Request: fold
Amino acid sequence: MKISIQINEGPYQHQASDTAYQFAKAAIEKGHEIFRVFFYHDGVNNASRFTVPPQDDRNVVNQWADLDIKDAEGNPELVVCVAAALRRGMLDESEASKNGVDMNNIHPAFRISGLGQLIEAGIQSDRLVVFGD
Amino acid sequence: MLHTVNKSSFERNSLQSCLNTIDDTSVILLIEDGVISAAKNNNSSMIADLATQGRVYALKGDVEARGISSKLADNIKLVDYAGFVDLVVEHGTAVSWV
Reply:
């Protein structure tokens, strides 16, 4: 079955991202397809490649990246909402240069896109499960 | 339909809102702080009828993390994350009460 996930909260402040990760991992282990994970609101903070938790703690960002959720062409299907991301200082290379910012911080396993990607995930998937506060 | 509730009923009334709204075929899965409502002598009366009908589940890891495994209300079914996935697959649309 095709399943998509929406995450509305950032890592280390709320259980949403952890629960969603364990859910996604279990779904993949059961042979289901995670079509897309959409990071919305504070959830965009799950995509920062600058995240450096203590060594004995889980790395939420890398955990998501390691699930290797991609489409058939190899594009990441960990999708970060552009408006929510830019507000919070989360930028990829293209958004950084477009907005005159000298740094970018989106992990390469994620990509920035628009809200249409969430709607499309809802249409293309058999199920959409929301995790938030 | 599957309804997930992730808040303790001490914090928010999302469980009550959910119970007021759902139809006779829906099931509830308590996750995160929502599992507090699965403890006996708390708000377990809220979900007792549904639990008797076998329609209340709680996420095992979250129940254990909050130390309420030994005082779970009657007829609450524990599931792991794989069981969570099965509930999503079996019950169609998943609604998250937050």
Q: What stands out?
A: Chain A has a mean pLDDT of 98.
